[in-house]
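## retry 2 of 3
previous attempt timed out at serialization; input unchanged, resubmitting
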Amino acid sequence: MRFGVVGHSALAQEAVALWSSLGHEVLAAGWPEGAGDGAVERMPSVGALLDSLEPLRRVFVFGDDEVLAESYILALAARLDVSDVVVDAAISSPEGPARRMAMLSQPRARYVGFGLLSQDGGLRQATILGGGHKVGFDLVATLLEDLVGKGQCWYVGAGGAGQILSKLLAAFAWVERAALAEYASLLVNGCGVGAAEVALAVRGWGVQAGETPSLEAVARELECGGPRVDLAVKGASVEEQAASLLMSSGVASWMVFAAFYGRFSGGSSAKEREVHKSRYPRPANAELPAIGVLLEDCRASFLALRVIATVEFAEILGPVSDAWSLQASVVDCLRLLRGAHLTRSPMYEPFVTAAADPHGLSLLAYPRVQFMLSPLVPALRRVCQLAVATGVSMPVVAACLQHFDGKTSPWAGLRLGGA
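## retry succeeded, writing output
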């Protein structure tokens, strides 16, 4: 198949290499010298690229610069017609897809949004979430499946639904990673457990929680980082975009907001922990729990956090869907969040039943979910108490407990002063 790629990025380079290996003929504009040699045929301009394609033209727009990507879309809009398809795979703010669709409204070309759910930002073991024009999506679905495989390419709604849902899913994956960094900091910095011992324990948590790339990534960083643990993802933009997305939708997420603000606080430094100990000294006879008890409490607490994070994700999907035209079901979104774990692990099975319940109760109100959490939440409380006692900052884990108590406490929703 012959189609066009406009704009360059690492993702574009990876996609073109895959397409070329499958025998597709790719024309490229806006690529630097030396990039994609042998895999693309370079065009001097966007106009020349479009003139080289036959009717029912398919063009993919890539790029890590939002302004530059939109300049490409404007250049395309001047030459497109109603039968053409533009796939927007460039970086975007939450409002970006609507702005880009407006640019294409005059030629009425078919806009297809491209959201990528990936472990590392690449196409390996990734899922593509498509949005925009459904007919346009169907016309490029084969090309998208060539990148990630059959069954890994979903249409999730009109407009920018694909980009929006991918940002939300990535944010909750990032929240889990930030929480794991907090557990590691508590154990190593706050309690003096060896980094190698924590790494070994963290790998074992996946047996019950469902295997997750975050566990292996944190274990590797612990093994490489020695006694100093600083696992916060510096410079990442996913939590910024997700926080902006939720704020503009009028939706509150305890955990995403905690991860967002916790990133800027930078956690608790060694100096801050020493100041904390001098201000709030532990009683002379107070001792830390044994290492085995500490590790078990952190494991149980992490399992509770994953369940409560899943609950929060499911509960904010409704208002986010209303705000951004998502059409994917709650159960489908939960499967995207937890992958195959949802279908093969008893830990997440109750969410499938609860999400389909027409009464719309909070997932935490279901007896099976409460039964699942009842042995885990006490460990979550002990971990938060220990963090306060040792002066270790754990904003995501604390927000998890706050969300749980806010939904289940008999005092939740109490109006003070008769207001």
